[in-house]
Specification:
Layout: H1 17-21, H2 27-39, E1 44-51, E2 55-56, H3 60-70, E3 80-83, E4 89-90, E5 95-102, H4 103-106, H5 110-134, E6 139-141, H6 152-161, E7 166-167, H7 170-175, H8 186-192, H9 195-205, E8 212-215, H10 222-233, E9 237-242, H11 253-265, E10 272-275, H12 281-289, E11 296-299, H13 301-304, E12 311-318, E13 321-322, E14 339-340, H14 355-368
Parallel strand pairs: 6-7, 6-11, 8-9, 9-10, 10-11
Antiparallel strand pairs: 1-5, 1-12, 2-4, 3-5, 3-14, 12-13
Helix pairs in contact: 3-5, 5-6, 5-12, 8-9, 9-10, 10-11
Length: 369
């Protein structure tokens, strides 16, 4: 099985105002917080978070940033966080996060914590399935067009955590410390009215470090267009992308073999072939078993449409006393893979560092008004 990609040079994004204010939380958490405040109850608790299936964990580093914000003023003597890391392979019911702190300091954010983990882990796990099927050929995430733009960066980051070598959006690639990966849209070719003219314009205006990867399925036979583009760009052509629509039979192993053979016979063996359009693990394996000479796979909706992986948060201690709901074992779980987290190292996100204070000030002003 291929390994996931550790993210070393990415950026950290501060939690949004909606998350920090509790507006995106299930309302019963805010009601519980109000009740506890009025009753004068705020015990030190231990909460454990786990999933019920094996998966590639993702979103846990974003959760660490969130906890660094909301626990910033907590007493360090009674506060500790233990967690795994993005990219870790997890087993059913393995504890991925343990929070020990006063409940009201973080209880409002349980919805956000579980949601971040559920969605991102689902995406990363789907990406990993594609990567495992394609190995040793690489996979690139092209799923941004299938989801809301506000979360495309999370999608692409999760796909890279799952093993994709790149992603199509600048925001997502930036989170992972990479440059975005892409080719050209069909609309550009259609506007120029000719694939070679579009390719030459791309070559004229794009920086030298942007790979010249040209779509060749817009107007003519793919093999013919691939040869025309290769003759026009020569050694500057990095690759061609096959994205034949369903109306024309989609990309097939036979088409890939023909394009590869014709490029090689014309002396363009350096040109790589990238395929896209409805790829998932099963279709990738079909191409592999057919020995289709694909150099890389672009996957979109299989990753972006992945089902979220459910996570559960359970209280296991209250003021040092083991406790659990029915059906669960009281007390903290033996979890040797958990690592102690230094929250101070996760709190240096400058763009919204004062958001909590701003929200509190605005709420106070609204109450006075």
């Amino acid at each position: 099985m291929t390994s996931t990609r550790p993210i070393k040079n990415g950026i950290r994004r501060s939690p949004s105002r909606e998350i920090l204010s509790g507006d995106s939380a299930d309302v019963y958490f805010s009601r519980a917080d109000e009740i506890l405040a009025k009753e004068g109850l705020d015990p030190v608790v231990a909460m454990e978070v786990f999933a019920r299936r094996d998966a590639v964990l993702c979103g846990i580093d974003e959760v660490k940033v969130l906890l660094a914000h909301v626990l910033r003023g907590a007493d360090p003597a009674e506060t500790s966080i233990e967690a795994l890391s993005d990219g870790d392979k997890i087993e059913p019911k393995e504890v991925v996060l343990r929070i020990r702190a006063r409940y009201r300091a973080f209880g409002l954010y349980e919805t956000a914590i579980l949601g971040i983990l559920a969605q991102s882990t689902g995406w990363a796990t789907a990406a990993r399935e594609c990567v495992d099927a394609a190995t040793p050929e690489p996979v690139v995430s092209f799923g941004a067009r299938h989801i809301h733009p506000d979360v495309t960066d999370n999608l692409d980051y999760a796909a890279i955590v799952g093993g994709c070598v790149g992603a199509s959006t600048p925001a997502g690639a930036r989170l992972a410390g990479l440059s975005p990966t892409g080719t050209m849209p069909h609309s550009l070719v259609l506007i120029f009215g000719d694939t070679v003219r579009a390719a030459e314009a791309f070559d004229r205006h794009m920086p030298p470090d942007v790979p010249r990867i040209i779509l060749v399925d817009t107007f003519r036979d793919e093999a013919e267009e691939a040869l025309r583009v290769a003759e026009a760009l020569g050694d500057r052509l990095y690759g061609i992308r096959l994205d034949t629509p369903a109306e024309r039979g989609r990309v097939t192993p036979e088409l890939v073999r023909e394009v590869r053979a014709r490029l090689d016979m014309a002396g363009h063996g350096h040109v790589r072939i990238i395929v896209s359009g409805g790829f998932n693990p099963e279709r990738i394996l079909f191409f592999k078993q057919a020995a289709a000479p694909v150099d890389s796979y672009a996957v979109g909706s299989y990753i972006s449409g992945a089902r979220p992986i459910d996570f559960t948060g359970d209280l296991k201690e209250i003021d040092g006393r083991p406790i659990a709901k029915r059906g669960r074992i009281p007390g903290v779980t033996n979890s040797p893979r958990l690592a102690k987290i230094d929250l101070a190292a996760w709190s240096s996100v400058p763009d919204q560092a004062e958001t909590l204070a701003e929200i509190a000030t605005e709420a106070e002003a609204a109450a006075i008004g």
